[in-house]
Amino acid sequence: MSSRRSRSRQSGVNSRITEDQINDLVSKLQQLLPEIRERRSDKVSAAKVLQETCNYIRSLHREVDDLSGRLSELLATTDTAQAALIRSLLLQ
Amino acid sequence: MASWLHYPLVDEDPDLDQSFCADLLYPTPNQSTTTSNTNTNTILRTSAVTELRPTVTAGASRPPIPPARRTELADSKGQNFVHFSRQKASFDGRLDQTEPSSSKSMVVVRESTVVDSSDTPGVAPESWERSASDIGDRGCGTMSCGALAGTCSAGAGGKEMMTCEVSVTSSPGCSCASPEPVLKPPAEDRKRKGREAEEAECHSECGPTLVRGLVRQDVEFESVEAKKQVRGSTSTKRSRAAEVHNLSERRRRDRINEKMRALQELIPRCNKSDKASMLDEAIEYLKSLQLQVQMMSMGCGMVPMMFPGVQQYMPAMGMGLGMGMGMEMGINRPMMPFPNLLAGSALPTPTAAAHLGPRFPIPAFHVPRVPAPDPSRSQATNQSEQMLNSLGTQHTGQPRFPTFVDPYQQYIATHQIQLPFQQNQALAQPSSSKPSSSKGPENLNNH
C-alpha cells in the first residue's frame, strides 16, 4: 500500500489516496455502467470507465430532462385540483 | 647501390643533409618526384633487405637493441631527420592527418628502419652499415613521404594492413583513443608498401613487437571501451524503458485526470478535488440518476395507466415496466416507451404521485436532476413491484401486461386483493420512508 502510494504521484491533487482505493471505486463505477458491464471483460482501463461514466451520465441527464418535460406536461394537462394535489404530494 | 642512393641526391647536394632535407621537403608536394623517389628507394631497399635478411632471421633478440644504436646514429645526423620529420608533420597536417599522429608515424618509421640497418653490423662493414643506415633513413624518409604524399588510404596489402584493420575495427567506439593505435599501423603500412613483401622476416622481427604493443593497447582500449559500452548500453536501455514507461504512465494519468474533470463538470455540486471522493460522488450520482430515470419513466408510464380510457396503451406500458424490471435484473438501460403512453394525456391518480412523491421532489412542474437521498437498488425494486401490484389491482379483470411472464402474473394475482390497502397507505403516508414502503408487499402479505 505504502509502496504503491509512493508510486502513485497523482499530479499533486491528492497523493494520499491510494491506487487501490481508486481502483476499487473505478470497478464499482464500472458495475453501474451498462456499456461496460455488458462487455464482460475485466480489462477495462480506468480512463475508459470514466469516459463511459461521463457518457452515461450525459445520457441519463438527457433522459431525466426528457422525462421531467413529459411529466410536467402531463401534470400541466391535468385539472387544477388534481394537479394541486399532485404538486403538494410531489413537493413534500 | 651507392650510385642509386646518391642519384637523387646528386641532383641537388650529395652530402649536405640539409639540402637533402630541402630536397625532400620542397618536392614533396610534387607528386611525380616523390613517387619516383619512392620507386627508386623501393628497389634500393629491396636489394638491401635481401642482403640483410639472413642476419635478421638469425638474431631474433636483436630488434630491441637497435633502437638505442639508432638513436646514436640519428643523433649524429639527427638534425636533418628531426627537421625533416617536423616538416613532414606540417606537411601531413595538410594531408588531413593530425600532427601528433603523423609525428608518431615518423617515429615508428624511423625505428623500424633502424632495426633493419642495425641488424647488419655482423655481416656488413661499418661504411656499408652507415650507408645502409643512410639508405634506410633516406629511403624511409622518401618512402614515407611518397606514401603520405600519395594516398594515405592506398590499399597496402599484407599482414600489417590486417592488423591495422583489426585494430581499427576492434575499437570502433573510441574515437578519442583510436588515432594512436590506428595511425601507427598505417605508418608501418606505408613503409611496408615501400619495401614490398620480401621483407617479411625482418618485419616479423620488428613488426610484431610494435604490432603486439599496438594490439595490447588496442585490447586495453577495447576492453575498457567494451566495458563502458556494455554498462552504457544496459543503463541506457533501462533508462529508455523507464522513460517510455514514464511517458505512457503520464499519458494514462493525463487521460484519467481529463476524464475526471469532465466527470466533475457533469456532477452537480461536486466541489471535491479529491479523486476518491470524486469517484464516490460519481457513483452515488449515477445510482441516483438511474433510479430517478427509472422512477420517472414508471411515473410517466403510470399516469395514463390510472386512466380507464387508455387501455390500448397497456401492452406498451407493460413492456416499459418489464424493461424497468429488467433493468434491475441487469440490463440497466432504462427504456421508456413514453411517446405512445403519453399520447393520451390522462389524469394521474394520487397513487402514482404518492409513489413518486418521496423520490421526486418536483418543484413546480420541473423535475430537477438532483440526486435522490441515497437510494438503493433493492428498495427501488421493491417499490416498482409495489407499483406494479397497485397497477395490477387497479385494473383487475382487464387485459393487460401481455408481455409479462408468469411469475409476475402470479405475483400480481396473489397481491391483487391487498392493493387497495396499499393505495390507501400510500395516500395516507405520501412521504413514507423507504423501509416502510419497501416492506409493503411483506406487510400486505401479513395482513
UniProtKB/TrEMBL annotation, chain A:
GO terms for molecular function: protein dimerization activity. Its main location: nucleus. GO terms for biological process: regulation of DNA-templated transcription; regulation of growth. InterPro entries: bHLH_dom, HLH_DNA-bd_sf, PRE. It is found in: Nucleus. Residues 6-60 form the BHLH domain. Keywords: Growth regulation, Nucleus, Transcription, Transcription regulation. GO terms for cellular component: nucleus. The keyword Cell division does not apply. The keyword Cell cycle does not apply. This is Transcription factor PRE3. It comes from Morella rubra (Chinese bayberry).
From TrEMBL, chain B:
GO terms for cellular component: nucleus. Keywords: Nucleus, Transcription, Transcription regulation. The keyword Transcription applies. It is found in: Nucleus. GO terms for molecular function: DNA-binding transcription factor activity; protein dimerization activity. InterPro entries: bHLH_dom, HLH_DNA-bd_sf, PIF1-like_bHLH, PIF3-like. Residues 430-439 have a biased composition (Low complexity). GO terms for biological process: red or far-red light signaling pathway. Pfam families: HLH. The keyword Iron-sulfur does not apply. Residues 112-133, 175-201, 229-248, 422-447 are annotated as: Disordered. CDD domains: bHLH_AtPIF_like. Residues 240-289 form the BHLH domain. Residues 186-201 have a biased composition (Basic and acidic residues). PANTHER family: TRANSCRIPTION FACTOR PIF1-LIKE ISOFORM X2, TRANSCRIPTION FACTOR PIF3. This is Transcription factor PIF1. It comes from Morella rubra. The lineage of its organism: Eukaryota, Viridiplantae, Streptophyta, Embryophyta, Tracheophyta.
